[in-house]
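Q: Sequence in, structure out?
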Amino acid sequence: MLAWPIFLEIFLQTLLGTVDTLMVSRISDDAVAVVGISNQLFGALTTLFTTFAGGAGILIAQRMGSKKIKEARTLAIMGVSASFVLGIAVSIFLLFFAAPIGGLLNISGDLLPLSNIYISHVGGGLFMVGLIASLGTAIRNTGNTRGPMYTGILVNVVHIILNYLFIFGVMGMPKLGLAGVAISTIISRAIGLIMLFVMFRRAFEIRIGLKDFLVFDKRLFREILKIGWPLGVNSSCWVFSQLIVYSFLAVLGSEALAARTYLNTLESYCFTLGYAVALAAQIQIAHLYGGGKTREAYKLAYRTLLIGLAVVMGNMLLLFLFGRQILGLFTQDPGILALGVSLLAINLILQPSKMLNMGMGNALSAIGDTRYMMYTSIASMSLIGVGCSYVFGIWAGWGLIGIYCCMIADELVRGLCVLLRWRGQKVLRKAEAERLEPAGTPLPGNGATTSFST
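A: Exactly. Output:
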């Protein structure tokens, strides 16, 4: 019940990205390359101002599970406020420094004019992404997963229509090309932001007013930081590592960059349902954990993982069988097609590794064990995800295939680390002990044992 609206929302977001890629491919493959690397940059920066939203979301679900609704409301407000302030700062930076940013990303000189347009236009409105993410996170963690889904439907419809009008100059509109994609993105996001803000104000029993955004609770803010900053570092590490990998691809040339962008679009569909299940499970595990039902929370993580792996593997098998035909819808360039098809078999290993990492990682996040994930992410992503990608992909000359192999190794190592951490049950045992202690119940080691079995 929690997962299907999340799935539909993410599916529609993925569809929006696909429509962007498909329409932009009608401009040129160079334009696709610019959109691909720019979106990696936007994703990296978005994590910076959604850190508070992620930490607040977990705490909201825990407070809802323990029936502390007033604290959940305050946490939601502070998460949105922090995302707004940081988002404005990031948007101003992108708006005025698009040209030097393109140079830092190793974008070739002939692509820089396109990147300047896209980064300045879309980046200038990036604060809306942070607000949309924080509002949606707060709403979903109260248990309302349908509201963001309905918003996603409307945003997609508006975006597709505006893309068609602005890119191709239909119905008397100016033919703006890549700038049209940027304008369409900003308008559709603004509509989604307004809808989510209205829902957010009514998400709790006491309606949220504008004056409430001035509320600041030091104790709750410290709790958000305790969970949120490691979560933010973890997310930032992943996105920034992907951004660096994209800069490696830029060194390999626009063919490799476009092939990765096209394949990334197709991979998103394979992973969407698995990710939705993992995200729904995170909400439920946080509710269970907040309500003291630690054993149920422990078992739920494994059930989620099995369902997610089955779904992802089934989807990846379909992509492997029909991937060449689907890639042909985006481009007819023989070099890009050959690169994309060569990666389809490798994806049969990459996506299950991602599911393992995502499923168990979300479970750890739900109970607040985010610092462990941060440490493993920093080590694995820097050494394997980035370091080995450069060694094998660039220095050794393995190219895009070498980089993909390193991506698999990184996801698998991190997935196994979080799986072992979950099986150790350190945080769950500590929570159970704290819950039993006030009642005078003997703790493990004093004649009683606490057991969590799969």
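The two ends are 23 Å apart (CA to CA).
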